[in-house]
């Protein structure tokens, strides 16, 4: 799986520490296996909106992939995800969130249009979303599944490492309207040199065709396409491949 490829790459690079920015088991592939692997690693983890929803959102409001993950986990595992912190002060310089400091369902670095497409957030919008976190040397965020590195209004870096194994959330109605993406497993390495922070944005190849076949066997053709290509076709478009 994508997570295994990323963990192997992290190990080969001799990274000092790892931070997980949430939405741990949001896709309909191997939720229990993914939870167990992450639990064994015991890495600092921020709660994502899907980690919160897995316990407290009514079933009628859950996306299908969320219901799949909920059913695959036991009560203690669901409670562990829900109990993760909403924000994390990892070091005095590094502050981590899933969405924004105040909302795990909001994008930090992007603004959605009416049809769901994402564009870079305007400067005043970003400053409002950051609030006091703008004073941090580094703010880590996720939620949009898009890699990005910008200098924020307070002069610190804002880093979104991208998504390890979910290039686009295929259950989203907006998925077919998004820009072209790729199926790579993404993460980032943050480094401080000579007093300045920088980051390497990494996109790894892994067996995404195998992941797509697994999704198709389970009856998730939209997810299979998203995993194999990074994109989801509009409903009127024919989709080839195994279902």
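Sequence proposed for the structure above (243 residues):
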């Amino acid at each position: 799986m994508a997570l295994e490829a990323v963990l192997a790459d992290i190990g080969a690079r001799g990274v000092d520490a790892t931070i997980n920015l949430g939405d741990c088991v949001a896709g309909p592939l191997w939720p229990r296996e993914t939870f167990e692997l992450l639990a064994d690693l015991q890495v600092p983890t921020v709660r994502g909106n899907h980690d919160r929803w897995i316990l407290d959102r009514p079933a009628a409001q859950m996306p299908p992939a969320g219901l799949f993950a909920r059913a695959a986990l036991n009560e203690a595992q669901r409670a562990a995800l829900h109990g993760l912190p909403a924000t994390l002060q990892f070091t005095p310089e590094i502050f981590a969130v899933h969405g924004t400091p105040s909302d795990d369902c909001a994008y930090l670095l992007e603004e959605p249009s009416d049809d769901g497409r994402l564009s870079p957030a305007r400067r005043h919008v970003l400053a409002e979303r950051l609030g006091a976190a703008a004073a941090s040397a580094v703010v880590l965020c996720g939620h949009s599944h898009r890699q990005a590195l910008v200098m924020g209004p307070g002069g610190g870096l804002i880093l979104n490492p991208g998504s390890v194994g979910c290039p686009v959330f295929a259950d989203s109605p907006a998925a077919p309207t998004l820009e072209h993406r790729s199926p790579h497993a993404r993460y980032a390495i943050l480094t401080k040199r000579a007093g300045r922070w920088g980051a390497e944005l990494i996109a790894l190849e892994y067996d995404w065709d195998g992941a797509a076949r697994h999704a198709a066997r389970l009856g998730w053709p939209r997810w299979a396409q998203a995993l194999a290509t990074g994109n989801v076709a509009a409903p009127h478009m024919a989709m080839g491949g195994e279902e």
